[in-house]
Amino acid sequence: MTNGLIFRQAPEVDAMNEPELALFASVLMHVVWNLLARQQPAKAFALWWALGAHLLFLGVWGFPALVMEAHWTPGFAALLAISAAANGVYFFALRRAYNHAPVALVYPLVRSSPLLIAVWVMLLFGDTPTPMVWLGIAISVAGLMLMASGDSRGAETRAVRWALLAMVATSVYSVSDKAATGSIESFRGLVGFISVGYLVAWLSLSVEHYRQAGQWLPAARPPWKVVLTGGLCVGLAYALVIHAMRFMPAAEAVAYTNAGIVIACLSSIFIFHERHRWQRRLFGAGIILFGLLLMRLAR
């Protein structure tokens, strides 16, 4: 399919370099946020504060551009609704998964979405990746699975089910976000677009927290520098990924961001000296990098 919302292309200016720079910045923001969040106690609910900070500052900045600049059609409105709903499901399922298993098991499973994204796009829109890209995505996903298997001590089956639901939700909003890029001209508009989904997610997390704790506010608050940094990184990191989708398939853009998991893995081993199953995790990180390299060579 070469018409409509899915593959309406952005201008060709800087098309060779801009997506790589956007993804590189996205990975750095993702790593910074995760390094900060991992040091916060669970009762602080750092993600809730980060999403709130994003909405308060970047969301307010992006919403007017979304309203005024986007090419509003029934199709675009449907894509916005799909992305927002999928974002809500993603964060809800991710929090549920973390209640039953550690991040080291849950997050690699969730980040295995590029393979499913490629399948969705092929089935729905007839856009088939090259064999080299299929191979690169499959190898990188295999590396993620290996990393997850090394930390599955006592993890309940329920955690895996919630993680897989979060992975499916990721694939859904990635495909709809890719489709929506053809109707949003500015980066500010993209920030407004994802902020709608983050608003739904923040409200969903707020309700879930109230059901569990009996209060709307978390019991503690991270330091303000963590909250503000999270508000900056969480939203902008994904807006940059969507921007990169203007120039490349959604599955590839999302797959490249898994380089952040590799950096986080190396940091945990060599900086924080977390030695549990370190050989397996390091080998999995190498497999992920190899898969990403194959994808890059295929471009």
Give unreliable regions as ranges.
1-16
Portion in helices? over 70%
Task: Summarize the biggest pleated sheet.
Answer: none
Q: What is the 3D form?
A: globular
Strand segment count: 0
Distance between the termini: 20 Å
Query: What is the alpha-carbon Rg in Å?
Result: 18 Å
Tell me which oligomeric state these chains represent.
single chain
* H/E element sequence: HHHHHHHHHHHH
What would you call the structural class?
mainly alpha
Features of the shown structure:
about 300 residues, mainly alpha
Describe the structure in your own words.
The chain has 299 residues and is mostly helical. It has one domain. The protein contains 12 helices and no strands. It has helices spanning 18-37, 46-69, 74-98, 103-110, 113-125, 131-149, 157-180, 187-213, 224-245, 250-256, 259-270, 278-298. The longest helix has 27 residues, at 187-213. It is globular, with a radius of gyration of 18 Å. Residues 1-16 have low confidence and may be disordered.
In short:
By secondary structure, the protein is mostly helical. The protein is built from 12 helices and no strands. It has one domain.
